[in-house]
Amino acid sequence: MAIFERLSDLLKANVNDMLDKAEDPEKMVKQIIIDMEAQVNSATQALGAAMGSEKQALKQLESAKAASADWSDKAKTALKAGNEELAKKALAQKTSVDADLVQFQAAYDSMSMQVGQLKDQVRQLKAKLEEARMKQNMLIARSKMADAQKSVSTSLNSTDSTSAFTKLDKMEQKVNAKEAEAQAFTEMAGENTSLEDEFEALEKNAAVDDELAKLKAELGIE
Q1: Is the pTM of this model over 0.90?
Q2: Domain range for residue 210?
Q3: Where do the coiled-coil regions begin and end (predicted)?
């Protein structure tokens, strides 16, 4: 029964723990399924061999039963013919066959019970294998999802100066600095323009005042 014990140990293994330790979880899960299939096939072959032995034991049992019945019929025939001595010989043969019959019956009963147990075990193993197959895609998907989450988190938390995201952040900072510098020059240029306008207006006002003074003098207006 070692084959069933090995498969039982395999089925009881913590698959998630094995995935954590595996370099390639997808290959690991597939290999586990392959191993389980091989064990189930071996168990099925063992069951087939046991069933073959059971059939042979049944044939021996049926043959012994037929022989016992035949010697009983011969003893009856001899008695009916008045040959008691021949009847005794037939019954002696029947007794010998019946002794074998007891052993054959015990052997067949034992094999039949074992075959029944093997059938139940193989049925359970096949059910567990089917369950494992159903979990296979789920486990692989979970593994890939974990890899994806790890990759994204690593990218977000990366402080590597060569990271594309880091380079983009630095470029944005440079652009922001240039925009601030340009804004400052624009504001300074605006201030200079206003100052020049004020002086120009002041000069125009002075000229107007001069012309007004001249005109008053000509007219004798104080």
Answers
A1: no
A2: 159-222
A3: 108-142, 168-205
